[in-house]
What does this fold into?
Amino acid sequence: MSTSKRNPVALITGGNRGLGKSMALHLADRGVGVVITYRSNAAEATDVVKQIEAKGVKAAALALDVGDVRGFDAFAGALKAELAGRFGRDRLDHLVNNAGIGVHASFAETTEEQFDALMNVHLKGTFFLTQKLLPLIADGGRILNVSSGLARFTFPGYAAYAAMKGGIEVLTRYMAKELGPRKITVNVLAPGAIETDFGGGAVRDNAELNRMIAAQTALGRVGLPDDIGGAVALLLSPEGGWINGQRIEASGGMML
Ligand code: NDP
It folds into this structure.
């Protein structure tokens, strides 16, 4: 099997809901086959797969806890089997390290447990999952990590979360440098505040917070999942191939 000029295949972690789901649907609109991962909600993941297949595009869903590196070997094996069986190939073209959690706690009150949970999912997970999947990513492929506007500007309560995202931004540049010889690009997308379940759905459900963020955003509203799904499809399009080692913020101009 080889990676010929057929439509690309993307792996998106945390694709059963929120931004990952929107990314999957937008990529599918461009003919990109998609493997999404879910942590526990198989029914949600199956629904996303069905929505993608309804577009005439191949899709699959695999369980994965990105916060537990011990599961990565088994995941890589399952992914390999899925790529061969469902997509008829042995390599991925795009990897989007999207899965994440939000923890809101002041610097003074953040516990070691909260810190470790954030580190395991965001930083350690992104680092070692990508490392594990390197043999399954095609030369010339694309990796897109997900950061946050909070790595550039500050809101009280996000010290640990934003520190992990800052780490991902630095990691992105190193990955781009070291994977360059394989012609793999690595970039990091930093969404602004988006209406999802993230952080208990606060941006979506807390009207006062929503208004406050909209007022600090040049385009006058908070982000919606489609704003990010579209940005990801744009960055992973063939025309985006010369963008490498960059932090791209998609926030409508938040906190400029
Ligand atoms: P959601 O809470 O809506 O969805 C999070 C996704 O990540 C779910 O699919 C969830 O799976 C998955 N996930 C969480 N923890 C794990 C884990 N340990 N292993 C595997 N999967 C996991 O969040 P968003 O879609 O909004 O966030 C996606 C990314 O975007 C995150 O990295 C987040 O930090 C980032 N981001 C979000 C912003 C926002 O305002 N929404 C702003 C900036 C960045 P499950 O359903 O099984 O829990």
Remarks:
- The CA atoms of residues 122 and 196 lie 18 Å apart.
- The longest helix spans residues 112-133.
